[in-house]
Amino acid sequence: MTPENLIALAKEAMAHAYVPYSGYRVGAALLCADGTVYQGCNIENAAYSPTNCAERTAFFKAVFDGHRDFAAIAVCGGKDGVITGPFPPCGVCRQVMMEFCGPDFAVYMADTGGRWIETTLKDLLPFGFSAGDMR
User: Measured between alpha carbons, how far apart are the two ends of the chain, in Å?
Assistant: First the structure.
C-alpha cells in the first residue's frame, strides 16, 4: 500500500463524515501490518466533547476486529470536504496511536495539489504516555 493509495482512501472516507455543526469533514485510512485498511470519519455531536475523530474511528473499528499491529495512517480534512492544507491528528488521537503503535508509526497528512507530509508518531508526540509508563 503506497502513501498515495492510503491518502486516496482517507479522502474517500471524508464523504462519510457526520458534521452538521462545523462542516469540517475529516477522513482517515489506517493500514494494519497485515495489509488490511480501516477507514474512519469524524462524527460530531451537539455537545462537542462526545465528538469522535476520524483517526479514532478507524482505530476503534480495527481494534474491534482484533487488529493490534499497525503500520501507517493517512489523514485529511477540510471545510465542506475541500482539503486546504495538512491536517495533523489532535492530541487525543495521538495518544490513542501511542497506545497501539511504536514511535516509528508513519503518519501521512494530505496537502493541497496531491502532495502530503510524512512524519512519525515520535515526532508528533515526543513525550507520549505509553504502557511502559504504567510500571
Answer: 36
C-alpha cell at 111: 496537502
- The question of whether 4 is a catalytic residue gets the answer no
Q: What is the pLDDT of residue 128?
A: 85
Residue ranges of the chain whose pLDDT lies below 70: none
Q: At what angle do helices 54-64 and 3-14 cross, to 10 degrees?
A: 100
Question: How far are the Cα atoms of 5, 63, 106 from residue 122, in angstroms, in the given order?
Answer: 23, 21, 9
Q: How many CB atoms lie within 10 A of CB 119?
A: 14
H-only helix segments in 47-90: 54-64
Contact (CB, 8 A) for 74 and 10: yes
User: Active site residue: 12, 44, 55, 118, which one?
Assistant: 55
pTM score: 0.95
